[in-house]
Amino acid sequence: MIDVDAVTVRFKTAAGAVDAVRNASFHVAQGEVFGLVGESGSGKSTILRALSGLTPNAQGTMRIAQHEQAARKRDVQMVFQDPYGSLHPRFTVDQTLREPLRISGIDRHEERIVNALREVGLNASFRFRYPHQLSGGQRQRVAIARALIVEPRVLLLDEPTSALDVSVQAEILNLLKRLHQERNLTMILVSHNLAVVGFLCSRVAIMRNGEIVEELDIGRVRAQQVESEYSRSLLLATGGYRRKAVEVIGVDASL
Ligand code: ADP
Ligand code: MG
């Protein structure tokens, strides 16, 4: 579903050119959840932005569903870390969900808005609220509904739970897991938390300084069988994988 081949993203800065992503390649099958892990600044968000067409200066090849970036725009949707920043403060939930339908020329707005809210666990009473009248978790549910309402084939999630309280993180992760199962969505999940990645993903790419240094099946992450010293240090930073999965996000990643 997603083919990334030798992608480099170079930014020109006052201090010279910076390769935010260098020669990155990976493939994600239809219905798979693929994880991108790495320390801050390693290029994870840049890859997601390039895939969603927000980065015009990407070199290399990116294909979604076999189409060379000519995939319908709505096929690839993104959910960002900060649900406070990503929702328009003066739009009601209804307006937030109506906008992408209008842009993509999709019909039956009323029905789709009510269904999208129900799918993310919000009842109709939320429809005419503004972002400041919602909790962080509720805002992230609205952001997920906004992404899914146009029926994308690919969902890109950039640290979708990092800004949330621990108990709310588990709710959102469970929601994402259910949506993935119900819709057979292809997803890429960026996280610095291997417990979060382990809960949702089947494969993980480890990034460092713009490069993919290792790609692992999730079983190897769980067994802590990682090749590079850097990957090991990321594992250690998460403080032991299983314990974290259960204690910190309240989900059993061995399921
Ligand atoms: P991550 O999401 O893994 O934290 P990013 O993809 O946001 O990392 O950033 C990777 C690198 O690219 C960082 O060094 C960042 O400063 C740089 N970078 C990202 N966007 C830009 C930009 N628009 N202009 C210049 N440098 C950028
Ligand atoms: Mg980032």
Q: How is this structure best described in words?
A:
The structure is a single chain. This protein has one domain: Rossmann fold (3-Layer(aba) Sandwich), CATH 3.40.50.300. The strands form two sheets. Strands 6-7-8-3-9-10 form a six-stranded mixed β-sheet, sandwiched between helices. Strands 2-1-4-5 form a four-stranded antiparallel β-sheet. The radius of gyration is 18 Å and the shape is globular. The chain contains ten helices and ten strands. The protein is an alpha/beta fold and 255 residues long. Helices cover 36% and strands 26% of the residues. Magnesium ion binds next to helix 1.
Features:
binds magnesium ion; 26% strand; binds adenosine-5'-diphosphate; 255 residues; Rossmann fold; globular; six-stranded mixed sheet; alpha/beta
Helix content: 25-40%
Low-pLDDT stretches? 240-248
Task: Write down the CATH topology.
Answer: Rossmann fold
* CATH class category label: Alpha Beta
- How many helical stretches? 10
Percentage beta strand: 25-35%
Assembly annotation: single chain
Derived from helix and strand composition plus strand pairing, the structural class reads alpha/beta
The shape, in one word, is globular
Largest sheet: 6 strands, mixed
Indicate the mean pLDDT: 88
Overall radius of gyration: 18 Å
CATH architecture: 3-Layer(aba) Sandwich
Work out the number of β strands. 10
Secondary-structure element pattern, one letter each:
EEEHEEEHHHHEHEHEEHHH
The CATH superfamily is known as P-loop containing nucleotide triphosphate hydrolases
